[in-house]
Design brief:
The protein is of the alpha/beta class. The protein has one domain (14-245): Protein-Tyrosine Phosphatase, Chain A, CATH 3.90.190. The protein has 12 helices and 7 strands. The protein has helices spanning 42-51, 63-68, 75-84, 99-104, 111-120, 122-132, 150-162, 166-188, 193-197, 209-223, 226-232, 237-247; strands spanning 14-15, 26-27, 32-35, 56-59, 87-90, 140-143, 248-249. Helix 10 (209-223) packs across helix 11. It is globular and about 50 Å long. The chain starts with 13 loop residues before the first strand and ends with a strand.
Length: 250
């Protein structure tokens, strides 16, 4: 099965299914997706609604981002998301006061920043995992703006508690690097590219594997593993067990 369903709008949308766990099971296909902002084409609506049967979207962006970027302030995008028919959940992983600092950061993402994002984003992650543990919310996609930092932390934690090995978690994150190049090319081809890219450093389009490798190491060094990290931020064992029952198959 294809990891990328071929959407024309989002550049970093992909299925988290198919990954093998350390217990010999696999993550189910077509249950959970990760993505950048859901800026949809008309054709994307049919794919999400009719082919994937999407029921839930979880937006990890701030309210400021949602209101000032396409997908929030754009009436066409609002209408297309409504056509998909999925229920939208808004769970910001960073607070509004950090948006300007994050946007102006000229450095690529770093492991220390990801660990802080895990800790400070704990309330949103607890709610996200609660939604993921309910079969009525599947299929579900969670996303942020670029689909690599906040979404990357959430995806790594999810795969980790499901029992996917660290090398595979890193490999999944690394898929974003190629997709970021595609996202940048799309923007550069637009007539309003200069306006869109103003104030957005090229580092915003980087997803270096070293960042997630350091994050994985930090999780093990700080908590002793993914299950312990999940417990430390408030995700209980019952939720983890429900996730494994719902999302794993032979």
């Amino acid at each position: 099965m294809e990891r990328d369903p071929g959407l024309g709008g989002p550049s970093n949308f992909r299925d988290l299914g198919g990954y093998r766990t350390e217990h010999g099971t696999h993550v189910r296909w077509r249950r959970v997706f990760r993505s950048d902002a859901l800026r949809l084409t008309a054709a994307d609506v049919a794919v999400l609604r009719d082919e994937l049967g999407l029921r839930s979207t979880v937006d990890l962006r701030t309210g400021f981002e949602y209101g000032h970027q396409e997908g929030g302030g754009n009436p066409t995008q609002v209408a297309r998301l409504a056509e998909v028919g999925a229920r939208r959940h808004h769970l910001p992983m960073i607070d509004e006061t950090r948006v300007a600092r994050h946007a102006s950061d000229i450095r690529p993402p770093a492991a220390k920043g990801y660990l802080k994002m895990l800790q400070r984003g704990a309330p949103a992650l607890v709610e996200l995992f609660g939604l993921l543990a309910d079969p009525q919310n599947h299929p579900l996609v969670f996303h942020c703006a670029a689909g690599k930092d906040r979404t990357g932390v959430a995806a790594a934690l999810l795969l980790g508690v499901l029992g996917v090995d660290d090398d595979t978690i890193v490999a999944d994150y690394a898929l974003s690097q190629e997709n970021m190049a595609r996202a940048l090319a799309k923007i550069q081809a637009r007539p309003d590219a200069e306006r869109i890219l103003a104030g957005r450093p090229l580092a915003a389009f980087e997803a270096p594997p070293d960042a997630v490798i350091g994050f994985v190491d930090a999780v093990h060094g700080t908590y002793g593993g993914w299950i312990a990290a999940a417990a430390a931020i408030g995700i209980d064992a019952t939720t983890v067990e429900a996730l494994r029952d719902l999302l794993l198959t032979d």
